[in-house]
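subagent[fold] <- orchestrator: predict structure for attached chain, return tokens only, no commentary.
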Amino acid sequence: MSHNHRLCRLAFLCALLSTACNGGGEVPEQDRLGRLVFVPARRCVLLPDTEDPVDCSNARPLLVDSFEVTQAEWEEWLVLQGAEAAVQQSAEFWRDRAPTLPATGMTLDEAREFASTKNMRLPTAREWVRIAVGTRTQYFPWGKRSRESVANTLELKLGSLAPVGSFESGRTSSGVYDLVGNGREWVLDDLLPGDSRSTQQAWAMGGSYLSNKRPTYWLDEGADLDNDGRLEGNTSFNAIQLNPVHRGRDVGLRLVADAETWLRAVAGSWGADRATASRLERIGASWGPASIPMLESLTAEPGAAPGLASLLRGARG
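subagent[fold] -> orchestrator:
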């Protein structure tokens, strides 16, 4: 490691430690709330006219982080745990270093542990697809057709990770970024038939700066009509199988949560001042009318935190 690299790394970690010592070690959950996209419970069935449609419907509403977990968040978490060796490992593993680059190189269990400390989790494979394709089951997060320069994939020739959220035109309509490129993302399970699953393999969804741009899903070439006029063939996904202990330069994570459970857990920690209420109203407005039934139910519960009413006012417009 060069002298300049050591100095840069030391400065980076000192900044994180300074934040922690000043009471801002964890990302405040209200700050995280501003990054969360509301995904309502909706039906989402891929290729319904085929022999084996894939149901990615979500029965309960979700909150999804707009961005992949960053290097700053990951190292801050390690520092707060006193995991100096792990901090060193991350610093040496990442080819490019910046607080806003996606954190990569963690195992599946490490990704799950990080998520749990935030009262969140990794998405299931079906949830990840639901987030990426929406209720219209479009092939790309931005629509039905491929576009140029909307994701950090091999075609762009950057050759490295980009800051999270860099590709505005590549996000979903709800505001989730980097699902096609930048870093792949660990998920909790897979979309394989039951008899094809292996406990020795895990899935990472989406593409990366080391892969070509691909749709979220597609019907394999050679699909043909069966006797009932339905297409028969295999559905493929923009995903790779990995050993759960794999550490990849282009494999990171994104956080999700059951919306009602997460809000019940954290809303009591929000302030009740006017500035906080105003900010919560803006967040509720970004979630829109689809969030109203859930928020009405939560605010009606005994002892409901006042911040939930602010979210509801914003959602109602």
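orchestrator: received. Logging for downstream: The two ends are 54 Å apart (CA to CA). The chain is about 35% helix and 10% strand.
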